[in-house]
Amino acid sequence: SAVISQKPSRDICQRGTSLTIQCQVDSQVTMMFWYRQQPGQSLTLIATANQGSEATYESGFVIDKFPISRPNLTFSTLTVSNMSPEDSSIYLCSVEDLSTVSGYGGYTFGSGTRLTVV
Amino acid sequence: GNSVTQMEGPVTLSEEAFLTINCTYTATGYPSLFWYVQYPGEGLQLLLKATKADDKGSNKGFEATYRKETTSFHLEKGSVQVSDSAVYFCALSPTPGNTGKLIFGQGTTLQVKP
Fold first, then answer.
1. What pLDDT is recorded for position A97?
2. Where are the beta strands (DSSP E) in chain A?
3. Of the four, A1, A42, A89, B10, which is 20 to 30 A from A109 by CA?
């Protein structure tokens, strides 16, 4: 299955600043997904990042707050802009493994970025 | 719409006890089903999956069977260990390979005591 390197693993940021999170995949993938996991909560999809086009955002998430870049088929970034304490969460990227030796591979996640906004 | 419902946690068990975490889903079509595990301070790891009705996913002693008639995908393990303490998420993919949206349940915290 795909291997995802995500960084930073954690950060503590001042309110009003921005943080960019990077995900690098060891194989080419069409779509990459960004999720948010608020403290004690489940995962919520923020957006889907396609190479060569603008990201598709889920209800409640907007490009001005969470701009995404997808410059090639192995890399994507998510920026959390103008942060407030409410943005304190774990942010994860994910890709879908469509084909592995054992068939459909499901989804692989990065190790996550634990963001604390103070 | 598509949704996943898991049993409320936390679940607290003694070592070597039998584990069941219930998961039911609502979906149109033929979704794929997953269990993910999140150990303290870590990201999500795929535990097991099933892509069609009656498939049984298994890994590390955990099992779950895709039951279309009851729209369920309950997670079981015959003898839990302290190292199994984690948060477990049931999830579905409505149309694998197409849009790729993954829908999660709320997560169930498992605590295993020695």
1. 75
2. 4-7, 10-13, 19-25, 31-37, 43-50, 56-57, 68-72, 75-80, 89-97, 106-109, 113-117
3. B10
> pLDDT tens for residues A8-25?
999 999 999 999 999 999
Mean pLDDT of all residues in B47-51 = 91
B108 touching chain A per CB within 8 A: no
Of B92, B2, B1, the C-alpha closest to B51 is B92
The reply to whether B113 touches chain A by the CB within 8 Å rule is no
Q: Which of B33, B42, B44, B108 to mutate to test the interface with A (most CBs of A within 10 A)?
A: B44
Contact yes or no for A42 and B45 at CB 8 A: no
| Predicted confidence (pLDDT) per residue in B10-30, tens digit | 999 999 999 999 999 999 878
